[in-house]
Amino acid sequence: MSRRKVLELFYDVVSPYSWLGFEVICRYRNIWNVDVRLRPGFLGGIMQASGNSPPAMVPKKGAYMGKDLARLAEFYEVPLRQPSDFYQVVIKKGSLSAMRFVTAVEMSHPEFLEKVSRELWMRIWSEDKDITEPDSILEAFGMPMIVAHIDGKKPQMYFGSDRFELLAHQLGEKWLGPVPQKSRL
Ligand SMILES: N[C@@H](CCC(=O)N[C@@H](CS)C(=O)NCC(=O)O)C(=O)O
């Protein structure tokens, strides 16, 4: 029987913040006793369809993001490292073929979805290696996007890997920081 609380995580491996959200959700799956549904999508298509653009396209935001990610990597204990050529890897090459592959894994071997996704993030966002349709979330504008289904209430959408405190509040659960195993509270 399925549990009452379901968290859907919409993500793309091109998105470093999605990686943070993904690892936190995986860490909390048993602590919060929620079902996690991983929903791979193509962020480039969502950006285009919603008229948004990656934050790093604004040079000052891009520079800030580099510092932000370095601090977050340490705090979240996720081995994020900027690719050496950000523009080429993230913007020019992008993730269309990688996310098609991840979607194929979701359809044919869902048991490998978590591992394959983590492996691709490791390649692009940690090891500086190559990874080479927007779906049902056209109302979204960025990733990670988390959709929480709680006790049959109207599903709630949360954008970002920095909204877990709020999500915990809605779930009626405790937020123990990004690394719950060594809670800093
Ligand atoms: N504050 C969010 C930022 C997440 C973020 O910037 N995601 C990017 C992709 S890596 C995005 O989709 N941005 C859309 C936007 O900022 O409008 C977090 O900490 O997770």
Structure at a glance:
The chain is of the alpha+beta class.
Q: Any overview of this molecule?
A:
This protein is α+β, with helices and mostly antiparallel strands. It has a single domain (5-182), classed as Glutaredoxin (3-Layer(aba) Sandwich), CATH 3.40.30.10. Helix content is 44%, strand content 12%. The chain has helices at 16-28, 43-50, 59-76, 86-93, 96-108, 113-125, 164-171; strands at residues 5-11, 35-40, 145-150, 156-159. It has a four-stranded mixed β-sheet. α1 (16-28) links the parallel β1 (5-11) and β2 (35-40). α1 (16-28) runs parallel beside α3 and α5 (96-108) runs antiparallel to α6. The longest helix is centred in the middle third of the chain and has 18 residues, at 59-76. It is globular and about 45 Å long. The termini are far apart. The structure holds glutathione (GSH). Glutathione is lined by residues 15-17, 52, 55, 141-143, 160-162.
Secondary structure blueprint with pairings:
Layout (H helix, E strand, L loop, with lengths): L4 E7 L4 H13 L6 E6 L2 H8 L8 H18 L9 H8 L2 H13 L4 H13 L19 E6 L5 E4 L4 H8 L14
Parallel strand pairs: 1-2
Antiparallel strand pairs: 1-3, 3-4
Helix pairs in contact: 1-3, 5-6
Bound molecules: glutathione.
* Chain-averaged pLDDT: 92
**Widest sheet: strand order?**
2-1-3-4
Please report the number of helical segments. Answer: 7
How many strands, which pairing sense, and closed or not: the largest β-sheet?
Answer: 4 strands, mixed
Strand content: 5-15%
Strand segment tally: 4
Name the CATH architecture.
3-Layer(aba) Sandwich
Order of helices and strands: EHEHHHHHEEH
Global morphology: globular
Radius of gyration: 16 Å
- Report the CATH C-level class: Alpha Beta
CATH superfamily, by name, is Glutaredoxin
> The CATH topology is what?
Glutaredoxin
Keywords: Transferase
Domain DSBA-like thioredoxin: 7-140
Protein name: Glutathione S-transferase kappa 1
Organism: Hymenochirus boettgeri (Congo dwarf clawed frog)
